Structure formats: C-alpha cells, structure tokens
Amino acid sequence: MEVEDEDGIPFSYTRCYFEPQADTSWALHEGETKFERYRRYQEEEVEDRWEEWDLAEWLVKNLGQTHTDEFLKLSITQNCTKLSFHNNRSFLQRVDALPHGPGWSCRKVTVCGNHKDELGVPLEEEVELWSHDPVECVQELIGNPFFKADMAYSPAKAYADCAGQHRVIDEMWTADWWGKTQKVLPKGATIFQGDKSAWPVYMSIGNIAKAKRHQASAQATILIRYLPAGKLNCFTPNACSLAGYRLFHHCMALLFQPLIATGQHGIEMACADSLVCRIHLILAAYVADFPEQCLISCCKENQCPNIDSPMWDPESTKNILEMRKNGQHPPEFEENSLCAIYKPFWADLPHSNIFLAFTHNLLHQLHKGVFKDHLVKWCIDIVGEEEMDARFKVVPDYPGFRHFKKGILTIKQWTGREHKEMQQVFIGLLTGVVPSRVLVVVRSILNFSYYAQLKIHMTDMLDALQTALGVFHANKDILKELSICKHFNIPKLHQLTHYV
User: Fold this and answer.
1) pLDDT tens digits for 225-274?
2) What is the pTM of this model?
C-alpha cells in the first residue's frame, strides 16, 4: 500500500511503499507543547507588545549594555514609546523570561589520586561537570512544532516497489534496530533514539529526519555536556591515563542516569503533533572516532570494538570487568585487551547495545584510511612517486573534475575533499601502468567507498557493497606477489567488514 504523509511519515517518503509495524506509538491523549502554551499566553495578553520585538532586536544587535541603558533612560524614549522595560536591567529580565531550552547545571566531581603529598595524604583534584538534563533536551526536540513534518514516531519497512522486493533503508525508523527494540517494549510505546558526538557532548534524536538534523540552522542537535578536561596531577604518570578513562565513564554515567528509568518505563511527552505519547529514551547511535570507541568499549586500541567481533557482548564484558574488580583473573580480560574500567557508563542503560551503536567514520576509515594511507601508497610503490605525480598533472581538465596541475606531492594539508577528487580520476591514470589485477583491487575499493557513501541504501546496494569487498579479498594477494604488502592485518581494512 502506498502511504501518503500519515502517522509521522516524512514527506520525502511519499513515493515509497511502507509496511508499518503494528502496536507502536499509541497516542495517550491530546496535549500541549511548551511552544503552544507560550503562544496561547501571548494571544491572551491584554497588552499587545509585538512592536517591542523590532526594537528589542535592534538593541541586542547594535548596542552594548551601557548604551542600551542610556537609550532607555532618555526622556523621549520613556515618554513616547511606553515600553515594558525602562532600563537595561529590566530589558534583560524580559529577555530571560522568554521561553528557553533546558538550563545548565554544574556538578563538582572530586577525584582522589594515588599521588601523595609530603605528609602521605593522597592528593585530590576537583573538576566541574556542566550539563543539561537529557530528558529535558528530548522534550525540547520532540515537542518542537518546527520538526512536525520531519518527525517519525514508529518503525516501518520501506520499499521501492509495491511487491516489497526492493527494501529502502534510509532513516533510523526504516532500519531493523528500531523494529526489533520496539518488540521488547510495551505495546503502544514510542522510542526516542539518541545519538551523541565526541567531547563536548552533543545529542539529537533519530525520530527527526536526518536531512533536518544535518541543517545547522535547524538546531536539531543540542549541546548537553562539557566533559571535564582536568590534568589529574593527583595521579602518578603511569596511572594518569587509566584515571582519565575512569573519569570519562563516571561523568558519562552521571549524564545518562536519567535515561535508565525513562528507558525502562518510559515518560509521557507532548510531541510536535500535539499528541501525548509514552516515550522510551534509548541510546541508539554513538558517533566517535576509533580511539574513543575503544575508550567506550573499555579496551585497548589493538582491538576492534565493533559488535560483529565475537568477544563483544555487553553482559559478558560487564561480567569480565566485575570479576577483575573482585580480584579474579579471567583469561578473557587479557585476551580481549580490556582496561580496568569496572563501571562502564553504558552498563545499566536498558535496551541499548553500545557495541552496536557505534557509527562508521567514512573520512578516517575510507577516504583517509584505506584509500589515502594504504591504496595510494601501494600504487605509488608500484608506479613510482614521480610517475604517479606526473600522471596526476597530465590528466585532462574537465568540468566537475579537479585538475591536479601541480600534482599531489605539493599538497601539504589533505582533507576529505582532496581524497574524493583523487578517487574520481584514480583508475584512469593507473590504466596501462599497473597489472590488471591491481586495477581490479583499486576498482573494488573505490566501488566499496562509493556504495558506502550513499544516503539511501537498498538491499541490492548492500549486496553490491559486500560484493565489492569480496572482490578485493579475492584479488588482494597480487600485492603480496609484487612485494608491495606483507600482510593485510590492517585495522582500517578490518573495519570494512562491519559496514554491512
């Protein structure tokens, strides 16, 4: 059945076919968002103060506080304008009374080190932890009428055809995770899907369409915490690093503490469509680079923290860490290269698998990692540095393609843009100068990269992504035969296996 814009389905999907999941996102009753309450308050005010907005905006943009105070105290201003504020202080009080997002709170965290003073007393360090309440941040986002047309409240399978043969996977609500998690919740529950980025900590919700989340002007991503960056001089140098890891998990545990109860039992929230639903707050995605993924997984950087690795199971990992804390020596602790972080922040988060939540990093894993640091280097070893540079220079200029008229050796600061521009001409300039099997290897990696960058995936595209990786592995031994690469035990190459 072709579904128009109903039940929270964004406009961009009106040409798709949907198979909605039953017994999800029941509306409990009609409600009123904070924005609607303030609008009603404005409409019910006896005095019309709309004309003050233009003046207030002008004061904020053009005058400092001293000049604002002088302007408001002028006789002509007070006698002719009849403003609701008469000086800078009362003006700022009016501004502060406007609706605003969640407030900041500061918590002091005392860290007791293993370094002692001259009296033998352990040194301590106090750090500040500034944060917003994540539950209030979710209420702010999910109840914002600006996102009403871009909000989804329930999972569904999307298809490009009415027969359901070609599945479309784009937003979070069209993937499998939301549907599987929905089945373990009470009937009618609505899932909030949170995701965060590196320090400082940002949060958004997967219910909002990603095209809207990616717009900076939409403000669909909220800064919720500043993690402390203390020097931890109260620890000896060899213990400082582990202490920093434990401090990170402790601070993140404080941040996510409200998500434990709301993830298990849910909380009623007025949504952007003015209907009240029981929302379950679940950490679904975590955006982090590889070192931070290892920090979160409580492992060293010689391990892969991805869920597909057999050793990574939240419950078993917690059990191993608990045994180590109690003085036992489970062999899995050393085998998995775990760190002595006995209370991970994700330990008590309901319905959340932190190892499944990690997102892929196209820039550092594909463009800079596999392509620039490995594939280009292998080809340069085959062709020669000067020959490779000369071939980049002589590639004909063409609209839409970058002409490396000075070659690539003069580029000092590489960005993702340069990597993508190199990929556009890389196969062409290698033709005739490297063995055909090397070209197959290069083409397979580039095909994988282009498929991985697609904003919308279908099942046949995911099959093509897996096929490209299989072609690479089937032909990679040519690099060993040419004595270009001794082994393929390369972390960034291994990470490609987790994309599908």
Assistant:
1) 888 877 788 888 888 888 889 999 999 999 999 999 999 999 999 888 88
2) 0.80
